């Protein structure tokens, strides 16, 4: 499965490189910074989930490149903005200086804005995506909702507002469901909607899978902030603790956090139990999420 993951990571990298403007096109510095932020780094979990979901339903890979790129561009834009001094003020991302460190704050803001716009341009214009206007519209709605105030951006707002405050476990879960889980859910649902005739029962199971692994992913991130090291993580270890952020280990303890993540993966796998062997990559990803070291 690792070789398959590697193939899909390379595939979305190539597709992203094709969509991102070259640095010799005006405004060159902005385009250079966009490519710096979006290429050559990251686990590409979200686009791989889009590919894996579509593949599980028999969708050709070329129909999945567009939604895979779109969800990754939204993710990268969020990282560029989250790293800014006004947000998390991080110096390191994906093993290299953050965008605002490599360029400047204003350029980083514009990079995030441009990457977000490009994501929706791809969904609107990619000629290889599913030839069904209603399916495309559902993808646009899913990605927009996952990205906005009721999704990722809302989760970041809650996160910023909770720094130094005591949250209970329900409040923490709600924050994570928005900040991280919403975009992971969109990645899966966009892959599913690349097959317009997907049956409602299968779609419900995939939605359950996505919700569970989205929360498990963030719990694992919280754990790695405690147990990981900066070189392996590719970002500053202990940053959440330093900022006084609410995390699962801080609230329920490290071992209980690990158990919670494992239970979520078990529930995720139940959601796709009815799918055949074409969904084995989804099953592998679910297990990887709670075992990863970065």
TrEMBL record:
Its cofactor is Mg(2+). GO terms for cellular component: cytoplasm. PROSITE patterns: POLYPRENYL_SYNTHASE_1 (PS00723), POLYPRENYL_SYNTHASE_2 (PS00444). Keywords: Isoprene biosynthesis, Magnesium, Metal-binding, Transferase. One of its GO terms (molecular function) is prenyltransferase activity. It holds the Pfam family polyprenyl_synt. CDD domains: Trans_IPPS_HT. GO terms for biological process: phospholipid biosynthetic process; terpenoid biosynthetic process. The keyword Nucleotidyltransferase does not apply. InterPro entries: Isoprenoid_synthase_dom_sf (IPR008949), Polyprenyl_synt (IPR000092), Polyprenyl_synt_CS (IPR033749), Prenyl_diphosphate_synthase (IPR053378). It comes from the Bacteria. NCBIfam families: FPPsyn (NF045485), PRK10581.1 (NF007877). Belongs to the FPP/GGPP synthase family. PANTHER family: FARNESYL DIPHOSPHATE SYNTHASE (PTHR43281). This is Polyprenyl synthetase. It comes from Ectothiorhodospira haloalkaliphila. The lineage of its organism: Bacteria, Pseudomonadati, Pseudomonadota, Gammaproteobacteria, Chromatiales.
